[in-house]
Amino acid sequence: MAVALTNADLLFSAEARPLSIARALYAGIKDLPIISPHGHTDPRWYALNEPFPDPAQLLIVPDHYIFRMLFSQGVRLEALGVPTLDGAPVETDGRAIWRLFAEHYYLFRGTPTRLWFDHVLAHLFGIEEPLSAATADRHYDTIATLLQWENFRPRALFERFNIEVIATTEGALDDLKWHQMIRDSGWEGRVVTAYRPDAVVDPDFEGFSANLDRLGEITGCNTGTWAGYLDAHRQRRAFFRSFGATSSDHGHPTAETANLSDAAAQELFNRVRAGSQDERERKLFRAQMLTEMAKMSRDDGLVMQIHPGSMRNHSASAFQKFGRDKGFDIPARTDYVTALKPLLDCVGLERDLTVILFTLDETSYARELAPLAGVYPALKLGPAWWFHDSPEGMRRFREMTTETAGFYNTVGFNDDTRAFPSIPARHDVARRVDCAFLARLVAEHRLREEEAHELAKELAYTLAKNAYRL
User: Fold this and answer.
1) What letter does residue 418 receive in the DSSP assignment?
2) Alpha-carbon distance 229 to 215, whole Å?
3) Using CA atoms, how far apart are residues 157 and 159, in angstroms rounded to an integer?
4) In 242-368, where does DSSP find H-type helix?
5) 248-286: per-residue pLDDT in tens?
6) Do the Cβ atoms of 432 and 23 come closer than 8 Å?
7) Could you tell me if 47 and 178 are in contact, meaning their C-beta atoms sit under 8 angstroms apart?
8) How far apart are the C-alpha atoms of 307 and 158, rounded to whole Å?
9) Is 54 helix (H, G, I), strand (E, B) or coil?
């Protein structure tokens, strides 16, 4: 049955020759298993395997792509059910939240959110009518009913989505109890964790000193000393590896790195541990810790992901009221060439180390990132990320990096999402964009068609699996 909300030629060229090639490439890879090596879905979903809550709690309340757009147009976050830090009342009626969203759905015209959401409505819930104020209640009732069915529970959807492996992301202090429960359940779905140490490497992270105390309690290491602090990280990384982790993830404000002597690093740690308010020292400590994490990755094999360049919590008042991850993280200009040199001088020529670089600063693609990844064995380029996880962002990424870094210094696609139902939609968009790009190269006689078919599979599946050692 034809689905009204999506088109079979979505994101393909309108010209006959590249359209025909793109269709053939896509047909060969559209049903490949999904490798989801970096994301933020909740492991408790897979551990408990309980029915998802109402449609609003599943699809709207956790998705900052959705509520940041609505907020920009005057819709209050409380009206969308976004919880406050102080427990002040917010809307809890899922139908009211859904109606409000549907009334404003037109705001997402032309955005990737619209592509993803229509894909979810059509392919997951079988809905063919566009979402609007007039159809809101019908759609809500359809989705609410389906969410009670056994085959719409998290594990069933994991299998229906053809996910081969998914990585969640947990902080360094997490006990990984949900991953333990998944393991104990005997379910065969592969859900692994990833090590995110921001709370214990960033002196500006709220509660940093207490976080280091807790790190010491968990590991039995003396996190009042530089040596003990590093040992604590090694222990936690080993613990995460025991739950399948193959990567670490680092969300620093910049890509700045440092490579201090042991004595200088110890002195710096002592000052930061004592609560230094010197901004230069705090920045230097973050920079040193990126290099320390890279050295640990060289030793223990965890793939290192660096996600710099977001000014987190740009609105102080929103942060104070709602906390982190509420849509107010804004891209900033990011230097890589100078910033990464200390780390690269230390480990950049290591062939067994993989450091995956992401950016929110597209001006760095051709000027900095592609040339760096095109020569340093340790470096790979992560896909178009966050604000650029979009058809145009993906096209720009390929256009600006391929000529210098090639395809094989990139790592395929990762969805980086909290919105579980959107995972197939996001991977489908990435596969379509890559097939369209490859089709253009074939049509321009820059690539043989058989090579394009090989590359389509690499970009959709193999590169991510290999880069993340999954």
Assistant:
1) S
2) 8
3) 5
4) 262-273, 279-300, 316-322, 341-347, 364
5) 999 999 999 999 999 999 999 999 999 999 999 999 999
6) no
7) yes
8) 26
9) coil
